[in-house]
Structure formats: structure tokens, C-alpha cells
Amino acid sequence: MTVPTTETEKPTDRVLAPRIKERLQQFLAFGGLIIIFIIFTIASPDFLTFSNLTSLLFSTVVIGTLAIGVTFVIITAGIDLSLGTGMSLCAVMTGVFIVNWHLPLAVGVLLAILFGGLIGFINGFNVAVLKIPPFIATLAMMLVAAGLALVISQSTPIYFTKSPEFSNISTGNLIPGVNFPNAVFILAAVAIIAAVILNKTVLGRYTYSIGSNEEATVLSGINVRKWLIVIYTFAGLFTGLAGVMISARLGSAQPALGSGYELQAIAAVVIGGTSLFGGKGTIVGTVIGALVMSSLTNGLQVVSVPQEWQSVILGVVILAAVYTDNIRRREAKT
Amino acid sequence: MSNSNSPIDVIDKTAAVKLLEIKGISKSFPGVKALKDVSIDLSHGEILGLCGENGAGKSTMMKLLTGIYQADEGGQILVEGELIDVDGPREAQDLGINIIHQEFNLVPDLTVAQNIYLGREPKKFGGSLIDDRALNSQTGELLSRLDIPIDPRTYLRELSVARQQMVEIAKALSFDSRILVMDEPTAALTDSEVETLFTLVRNFVTDQTGVIYISHRMDEIKELTDRVSVLRDGEYVGTVDTAATPIREVIAMMVGREITSSVRPESREENARAVLEVQGLSTHTFLKDVSFDLREGEILGFAGLMGAGRTEVARALVGADHKSAGVIKIHGKEVTISNPADAVAAGVGYLSEDRKRYGLLLDQDVSANLALSSLGRFSSSIGMVNEKTIAEAAERQVASLRIKTPSIRQAAQNLSGGNQQKVVIGKWLTRDCDVLIFDEPTRGIDVGAKEEIYDLLEKLTAAGKSIIMISSELPEILRLSNRIAVMCEGRITSILTADEATPEVVMHYATLRQPERPGDVAESDLIDSESARKPNRNTEEDGGER
Question: Which of A240, A270, B134, B191 has the most beta carbons within 10 angstroms of its beta carbon?
């Protein structure tokens, strides 16, 4: 190199530093997850057992699926509050398709997932075309979906008693003889697919670009309006899938179950290091975030902390997670 | 002189006690030494220019002075000969040091008065309520004293950028400032507003006060300041007397070499092919019947005062703003451009004047920025992005544009202004746009990097690209443009060839409120005369409206 060494040396560590910092929140979340595991393992011999870990993972599935979907929306600097009740509506629709309309199982499931996509499409249309702020647009959708779920189901659960194989989607065992639910495999597959799409496709690139600087993306000749609708629709598919998974797990479509899930999913995303201001975030982080949420809930139950206090502790953990993220950002700036 | 005692004493005192002395100050950041042993001083009643390229350390220096940063051990800051220790902006204000930042620190949703006295509102009822009446009358007095014609009750967001700047200055002057630091205060001002500002500054300066004036614009430094101090790479280069020093020398001090401006370009031959033709471009709000053509391999400069509508032409052209009428032809073929995606598809790329806001994904890396407009080309039919070809293309652009970055994985926000601009240019070159619209391509870029951008523009035209260059800096326009379109109040008042264009001629057309055509007095007359002149008006409108 003939260039002065000061110019060439300095940069190399500057390149590595931001990448490590970017991953740091995930490391922190992952470290937090390990700490949670250690604490509960010490506190109770019942925590680190195969059956408990299985049920822990099982309980991650619904939150995880919702969180993975909303990660895309949050990276665009958007938000989706209609996840929870949207999931209820999709669960009810699963019941309608399979139980009321007697559609074949696969068709019913597919339609239910697409129904989630429809909810996402409407959200995306409202945000991108009508220019309604995502918070308001999805808040409205939250109410609409909650109401429709009750109207369509006439406020009563729909039971899948006549199609027992439906439950296998969630509770069946892919590995014969081992009591390990399919739902966990589905979550893993969904996470991998989502990660590939976020990192390796045009859709993923535009998701980051829009969140990073929407106006610059528009002026770069990208049809942001179209892509926002695509992203919200895509995220909606996960809501649909979550609706299928939760009704398969319960063996029934519960019309009033979902509310509150949206906030847990968003919390998981935030714990995983995705910025609510957009432009930053990973699927791995979200999965870790979802695991933090579910292992806390699970562990606190195992050590018999009253439910009221579980909620308090969860709240504190979310604050702590976001606060460490803030410190990291401030340090990265100076 | 040496015989009489008392006069020497007086002279000695005034000479010894400077208004401000900064002695041997340094500032390190992790891995970088931003300032190395810099000393400058400011006398009473003086306007001191502070020059240096971006990254020379001017802003760091001023942040030390106003307590935003703390200096390394060893340096001293003296005000009126007294050693001071500034812990924060509040202390600096108490000491009478005020800074007007490049970026405004004003709240859009408060009124002018509320902004100026934010945190210092006059109170009533024992301090429990804000005394709005006193607040507004106090502000009214301040503004009229400064000769700024703004109502104190106006909300800030309703003001133009220039007027917001005036408010910012009024705010700084509302403190009992002894030392006023102005960091690029004229970036958003028109010439007449700059004059008003200069009057303000000159009025501010008394034998009790002084001004440090930071600017890239050498003509302003020349006009306003008494002395100029120059920084380069965090080091003090020297201080010269403004009146006695040619600008060229100051620039040479800044960049460490002398810059010779190249010869003026010639007009392209008249028969060069038109790449882009614009006819009757109008918007509902502002633009009126803008027509011009852009020839292959030329730079068409757009000159005019702030607010003449140059940026509006660019934005309407690329579909970022809505058009009310107008036909656009590219390579002789009429195209429909209703959003920037259409423009890019037609090969027209727009580089905004505000590259951070409209040009870059600041937190994304260089390669992501370079590939942003061309992802379609870099991906398979199912939308899988080919990371390897992106990296190769990015490396090529970095090399050919000589973008100074440690790697293509560096985030765009860590590059200097000039290199950020190159990344934006590279984005359009990756997309292979034929027509590039540069809006203020060198705004906020230091002198050395400006030269590089100029070279680049010339190379691009040599390679067959056609360029529209909007600039507020007339020397830049005159130096680079083959032809110059001059705008005033939403119209093109003249299109000049390089031979015809002198600063005087351009300014004449830039201030020509109405085009020199008969029958233009009323709006209705204008429409009549236009339709009379252009029988095919209707078809044009059909093509333009959507």
C-alpha cells in the first residue's frame, strides 16, 4: 500500500466495530436468556427438564410467529396493533372454513393464512395509500377484527371435534415416539424462511430502506407505496398462521383470546434489538426476544410466582432491555 | 512614540486583553485527534472569519467554546483575560457566548416569541403563569430593533427557512451576548437576506462584542470579516488580514494547495441531440409553463434566487410533486412520469439538495446505498438478491468515483459530505441513468471535495451523460454549464449560452419578475396568449395530466 498508513489502518477497526455493535443487542438478549435459564434452573429442579423445555418452546410458538411477522412492519418504522385480535379473527375463520364450511383441512388452513394476509393488505393500504399513521390504522383494525371475530363466531368458540387431525398441526409429533410438538418445528421453519426473505430478497432490502429513509427510497425510484402494502400483507400472513396454530393447539377457535398478544409480540421484537424507529432489526433477535418472554413466563410459573407479579416482572424486563439498547446507541454515537 | 508613557499603557492594555483567547486547545475522540494545539483570538469589535474544509475542526472548536464538548487537558480559554471553564451551553450563555448552529434549534409548533424566550419566559402571578402579553411585546421590541419584520405570534413552522434563520439570530442576540458564533448562517438565505443578516451582524459588533463567523462561502468571508483564521485537519494554519489577502490564498491555506479554476465550458453545438425535452411544465401552486431541452452530454445550469422554483422544476419533472400540465419527452419519445419510480425507469435520476434527508440511507452501508435503485437488476426472478454482484458493482463504483471509505460495508453516515455525495452519484451511475439532475451538488461540501465533484460532473458529460445542475452559487453555474436556464418566480426567464452568460446577465434575468412578453399582465391574459402561441396545447395537457 502506497497510501499513508494512518488512512488505511484506522478504517479496518472502524468497519468491524459497527457490525459488532449491531449484533450486541442480540448478544445482550441472548445473554439475558441464558441468565434467565440459569436463575430458574437454580430456583427449581423442574425448570431444566425435557418436558418443561418442550412446553416452554411450545408456548413460544404463537408469540414467536406473530413477532416474526411484525418485525418486518417495525423495521419499516411502522407498527401493527391488530396482531392479537387479527389472530383471533383468523382463528375464527379457520373454524368457519373447516368446521362450518367443511372445506378440506389444507384448503381451510391456507385460506385462514391468506385471510391474515388480507388483514395485512388492508392495513398496508390504509398506511401507504390513505397515509394513515400505522399506529392509528392498525388500532382501528384491532377494534374491527375484535368485533368481527365475535360477530362471525356469535361469541362462542368453534370446536374442531370432527377433525381431530387438525390439532396434529400443532400438537402432533413429527418424530415418532418423542413427545415434541410439530408447532416448534413450524416456528423454526417460519423463522428461517422469514430470515432468508429479510436478508436475501428485494422485499427485505426495501423493508430496511423504507425504515431507514422513506423519502430517499421514494426518490431512488422505488414504488414505496406498493412495497409497503406488500410488506404489511406479508406480515399479515404470519397473523393468519398464528391464528391457525393457536386454534390447532387449543382444538377450538376462541374469538376473544387474542387481545394483548400484540403487545407481547411487539415486546419480543424490541427485546430482540429491532428499533421502533425503523431501519434496524433481525429475525434471530426477534426469536431470542420471544424466547426471553416465554421462558420468563414459564419460569415464573414453575417457581410459582403469582400471575399478578409475573406481569410486573415482564414489564420491568422490557424496560431494562430497551434501556440497555439506548445506552448502546448512545455509546455508538460518541 | 517611545517617549510618552501613558498612550503606550493604554495601547498595551487594549492589546493585551483580548475579548476571547483560545490557547493551545486540543480535543481527542477515541481514535481521532479532532483538534491539535489550536490557538485563535478575537479582539473587541472584530468579526473573525473561521475557515477550513469539512472535518478541519471548526465545529469541534465551537463546541468546546460553548461547552458542548470538554477540551483535553492543557488548553486555555480566556474571556476578557479571565480563564474560563465552560461546562455546558448554559454556562456559555451566562458568559455571553452564544452560537447560531447550522441546524436550527427551534421548535416548529411554538410561536416566534415562545421560541426566542424558551426557558426564560416572563412570568406573572408570582411566577405561576407565563405572561404572554409581556412575552410578545418584549419579542416585538427585539425584532423591531433588529429590523426583522416578523409578527412575534407567528408559529415558526409557518415561516420560510430564511425567516426561521432570522428568528434564530434574534434569539442569539436576545441574550446579552458578548461573543456571537455563527456557523454557516447563510446556507438558506437569498442574497438580499444575506445583506440584512450582514447588517444585523455589523450592528451587533461594538467595542464590547465580537463575532466568529464560520462559512464556506469565501465571498462572504471577504465582505464581512476583519481577519480570517484557517484550520486544516484539526491544526491551526494561520490568521490573515482579510482586506490584504486574496481569496485564492485563503483557499490555498485551507486545502494546502492552490486551486486553479479551469476554463469556461463552450456551448454544445446546436445540433446535438436533445435527450430530454420539457414543454409547458406547470404545477398548481407555483411553476408556470416551464419549457427547455437538455442535450446529450451537456450540463444545463439552473440559476436563480432562492425560491425561484428550480428545485420545484426538478421535483415536478421526476414526479415527486404533482404536475398540473406539461409534456416530457425522453429521446424524442413522450413519457408518462407520475412518480419517481417512473422517472427512474425512464432513466432520469434526481440528486436532492438535502442528501441526508432525500438521498441516503444513512444507517445502511455504502453497498446498500449504491444498489438501492438497481435491486431489480441484482436479483433473480423470484426476488432473491445476489449479494456478490452487488458487492462487485459497489467496489467498482467506490474505485471509479474514488469514494473514500474503509469498505463498502461502512455506514453512509460515517462518510464525509463529499463522499456521501459521491455515494448518491454512484447510486444513479449503478442504475445507469442517462439524465442526472443535481440539486446543489456541492452544498455543505468543502472546497477540495467541490473540485472533485466538478471534475466528476465533467467526466460524466464526457461519457455521454446529460446533466441538469441546479445551484445557488453563481460561480459554480458559470464555470460548469454549457447553457444556463435562469428562473424567477416559477418561470424560466431566459436560457443563455455559456458565451452570453455573465454574472450581470444572469442576475438580470434572475430578478426579472415578468418575462418580456406582451400581454402577460394578468393570469387570464397569460393563458390566452399561451394557447394562441401553442395550438397543440390541448394534446399536451392530455399527455401531462394524470
Answer: A240
